[in-house]
Specification:
By secondary structure, the chain is an alpha/beta fold. It is built from 5 helices and 7 strands, in the order H-H-E-E-H-E-H-E-H-E-E-E. The chain has helices at about 1-10, 25-40, 85-90, 100-110, 130-140, and strands at about 50, 70-75, 90-95, 120-125, 145-150, 155-160, 165-170. Helix 4 (about 100-110) packs parallel to helix 5 (about 130-140).
């Protein structure tokens, strides 16, 4: 029964995002949908994993309808097994708060099986979380991370610079590409594997 529900979830195509954004939430959802569309043009998205904490009842991503892609919605308690082929083309959307950031990013790392090139967009409500996200990205070797923060009717984008030490730029995108191919420039970093 669970497998049937999962299949139906993956092929849901009846909803659409055709509205005029009037509230701040609608502006943020429209911005996110446009960002995902642009990311898909640059590199196809095979699936979107929307992840929030089981105790988080105020996540804007719950209102996000994405008819153009298969969507899996889950929390930190569910473990899924993704092949490297699927996870390489998947994109994760996380809804983080100060209380759950480490737990959700660790759970995501387990679900992505250590795929460093996984594309991750983090929806956060507090800029202080950028430090925690950068630390966890370093720990799990994620390097394609964007953080989106709502500010009134606009959305601020922070792009992570993974090398030599993960940190976020405050200027937004550094290039036309949403997810930059960092593996071509490691900025003289030397990895030490434990």
């Amino acid at each position: 029964m669970f497998a049937l529900g999962l299949i139906l979830c993956l092929f849901q195509t009846s909803l659409s995002l055709n509205w005029t954004a009037t509230s701040p939430e609608e502006h943020h959802l429209s911005y996110l949908h446009d960002l995902l569309s642009k990311a898909h043009e640059q590199q196809p998205i095979t699936a979107i994993l929307v992840m929030k904490h089981s105790q988080d009842n105020n996540c804007l991503l719950e209102q996000l309808h994405l008819p153009d892609w298969p969507v899996l919605r889950f929390n930190e308690t569910l473990r899924i097994c993704m092949s490297s082929e699927v996870s390489r083309e998947a994109l994760a959307l996380l809804c983080l708060s100060k209380n759950n950031a480490v737990e959700l990013l660790s759970s995501l790392a387990a679900n992505f099986n250590g795929m460093r090139e996984a594309r991750i967009i983090v929806w956060l409500n507090n800029e202080e979380l950028l430090v925690i996200i950068a630390e966890q990205a370093d720990r799990h070797r994620f390097y394609n991370v964007l953080a989106l923060q709502p500010k009134g009717n606009s959305t601020v984008m922070h792009q992570m610079q993974p090398f030599p030490v993960a940190s976020f730029s405050q200027q937004g995108l550094k290039s036309d590409r949403i997810f930059v191919e960092y593996w071509r420039n490691f900025q003289e970093i030397q990895w030490i594997y434990e």
